[in-house]
Write a structure and sequence with these properties.
This protein is an alpha/beta fold. It has one domain: Rossmann fold (3-Layer(aba) Sandwich), CATH 3.40.50. The protein is 46% helix and 16% strand. The protein contains 8 helices and 7 strands. It has a 7-stranded parallel beta sheet with strand order 3-2-1-4-5-6-7, sandwiched between helices. Helix 1 links the parallel strand 1 and strand 2. Helix 1 crosses helix 8 and helix 3 packs parallel to helix 5. It starts with a strand and ends in an 8-residue tail after the last strand. It binds nicotinamide-adenine-dinucleotide. The site of nicotinamide-adenine-dinucleotide has 29 residues, from helix 1 and helix 6.
Length: 232
């Protein structure tokens, strides 16, 4: 049975994806910021990349080697650039990208040895089209596009694929924290399909990208955004 590690799965997209993948026959290890009393879970703060060692060592000891990594944890910040403080900038970049880069570097040796691996990065359409007052968040997410392409090339001969999914607005606690009810109505007006994505739609795409059917897809970014990136 393939083993999956999914970050940021105490809530939102990651939580629903973990549930979906478990019922689909995968063994899933979850991590998030919240302390939860569930099987195969550890609470780790990824804003400090050194904590990745704690996560990796715990997973390896108690769960085993990882076949599939879902780099999902992340947080959104809206701020004009001249109001961002350096500490906060570094913290967000660590949480959204650097810790995942480091975690990936730790799981890849086993995948290479085993000649199988799937890495799925949850980016954002904010990294695809840009979003005013979200330049930092946008930068942390577009980092995954170069990462997926280059690492996809590096690992292609080992039957390891590396892809990104860029969701549009998804109905999760992150969205509820970012938008007031009034802002949600305004946002719905500019989404071509006039709806928020459901977390299970992202989970379904993850499930496909990690399947054998998707073995030829690597280095790609897939926008799952209800039409937001099509133009206006
Ligand atoms: P969420 O707030 O419901 O869940 C975020 C998860 O990430 C939680 O489990 C949280 O504990 C974890 N997390 C955040 N910062 C962390 C840290 N420093 N250390 C450890 N864990 C941390 O949000 P969500 O909407 O499910 O977001 C999941 C991913 O999808 C994020 O990377 C987000 O940027 C991305 N995304 C979300 C949307 C959206 O509209 N909700 C759109 C595009 C991309």
């Amino acid at each position: 049975m393939r083993k999956i590690l999914i970050t940021g799965s105490s809530s939102g997209i990651g939580k629903i994806a973990a549930e979906k993948l478990k019922v689909s026959g995968y063994q899933v290890f979850q991590t998030g910021r919240k302390k939860l009393d569930i099987e195969n879970y550890i609470s780790v703060d990824l804003s400090d990349p050194k904590n990745v060692n704690k996560l990796y060592n715990h997973v390896k000891k108690n769960f085993g080697d990882i076949d599939i990594l879902i780099n999902n944890a992340g947080e959104c910040v809206y701020s004009p650039i001249d109001e961002m403080k350096l500490d906060e900038t570094v913290r967000i970049f660590n949480s959204n990208f650097i810790s995942h880069y480091y975690l990936t570097s730790l799981v890849v040796p086993y995948m290479k040895k085993n000649k199988f691996g799937r890495i799925v990065n949850i980016a954002s359409i904010s990294g695809v089209v840009g979003e005013a007052s979200a330049s930092l968040y946008s930068a942390t997410k577009s980092a995954y596009f170069g990462f997926s392409k280059s690492l996809g090339l590096e690992l292609a001969e080992y039957n390891i694929t590396v892809n990104s999914i860029s969701p549009g607005w998804v109905e999760t606690p992150l969205t509820n924290a970012a938008l007031s009810e009034e802002e949600k109505m305004v946002t719905l007006d500019v989404i071509p399909q006039r709806r928020f994505i459901e977390p299970v739609e992202i989970a379904n795409l993850i499930k496909y990208l990690i399947s054998d059917e998707a073995k030829g897809i690597t280095g790609q970014n897939i926008n799952l955004c209800a039409g937001l990136t099509c133009g206006c």
